[in-house]
Structure formats: structure tokens, C-alpha cells
Specification:
This protein is mainly α and about 160 residues long. It folds into two domains: about 5-90; about 95-140, no CATH class. The protein is about 60% helix and about 10% strand. It is built from three helices and three strands, in the order αααβββ. The chain has helices spanning about 5-50, 50-95, 95-100, and strands at about 105-110, 125-130, 135-140. Strands 1-2-3 form a three-stranded antiparallel sheet. A hairpin with a 2-residue loop joins strand 2 and strand 3. The longest helix is centred in the middle third of the chain and has 44 residues, at about 50-95.
Length: about 160
């Protein structure tokens, strides 16, 4: 059956070497699996460590702070533009510009604004504010007429 007395030993030695190789492979797999689990546990631990959580919160806070300052600068810029536009409109539509275009503001003696010729009474003292000063006058006869149109031909 066996050719030599060492053949049985060689057969057992080969089986033993195969078992040792399988055992070493299984041990390496187990070690790698344990290392992987340990690495995952370390990562989870680091994430929940107070210093790490504090650092992450600080980074979020710095990001939010930068966004807040940027939004505030944009909002202030937008509001400045709106204010400048409103200021331009106010100057264009304000009484000073209206007077400069040839209009006047006329008041009764008691300070009420006369908006229509029908509001004036014969003999009433009125005060008209023009671009360069004030004119006091007395109403002779109020007349109500249609307002002139920009498209009517000039009289005369």
C-alpha cells in the first residue's frame, strides 16, 4: 500500500499543511473583518466625540455667519437703491420741482390750499408760492374753465 514508511507521515503532513493554510486564511479574514468593524466603531466614536461635534458645529456656524453677512449686505444694497429711487421720485414730484416747471401753490389767508378756481371767492386774499418767491393777491372773479391740454394749439 505505501511505498515507504515515510509515505504515511508525508500524507499526514500534507493534510496538516492544508489545514494550517485554511486556518491562516480564516484567521486573516477574521482579523480583516475585526479591523473593519473597529475602524467603523472608531469613525462613529469620533463623530460623537464632543470636540468633533463642537468643531462641526463651529464650521456650520461660520458658514451661517458668512451667509447672514452676505444677505445683510445684499439687503442693505437693495434698500439703498430703493431709497435712492424714492428720493429721485420725491424730488421730481415734489413741490420744488413742480414750481420750477411753472406751476404755483396757492393758499387762502387761513393757510388752506386752493385746489380749484371754484374754491376761490371774490375779494378773498390769496397767496401764491412760485419758484422764486411769493405773490399776495386778491380774487376779482373766480372763473372755472376746462383745464388746458398739452395737445391744444396755443391761443393767439
Amino acid at each position: 500500500m505505501f511505498r515507504s514508511p515515510t509515505a504515511v507521515i508525508d500524507l499526514h503532513r500534507a493534510a496538516l499543511l492544508r489545514s494550517v493554510a485554511r486556518l491562516a486564511l480564516a484567521a486573516r479574514a477574521r482579523i480583516n473583518s475585526t479591523r473593519h468593524r473597529l475602524s467603523d466603531a472608531r469613525t462613529r466614536f469620533e463623530r460623537h466625540r464632543p470636540a468633533a461635534r463642537h468643531a462641526a458645529a463651529r464650521e456650520r456656524l461660520f458658514g451661517l455667519d458668512a451667509r447672514l453677512h452676505s444677505a445683510a449686505r445684499r439687503t442693505i444694497g437693495d434698500l439703498r437703491s430703493q431709497l435712492a429711487g424714492a428720493d429721485r421720485q420725491l424730488r421730481l414730484l415734489g413741490p420744488g420741482e413742480t414750481l420750477a416747471r411753472g406751476w404755483s401753490l396757492t393758499f387762502a389767508a387761513d393757510g388752506t390750499l386752493i385746489r380749484s378756481a371754484a374754491d376761490a371767492r371774490p375779494g378773498q386774499e390769496i397767496e401764491s408760492h412760485l419758484v422764486d418767491g411769493t405773490v399776495r393777491s386778491r380774487v376779482i372773479s373766480p372763473g372755472v374753465s376746462a383745464a388746458p391740454s398739452l395737445f391744444d394749439p396755443p391761443a393767439g
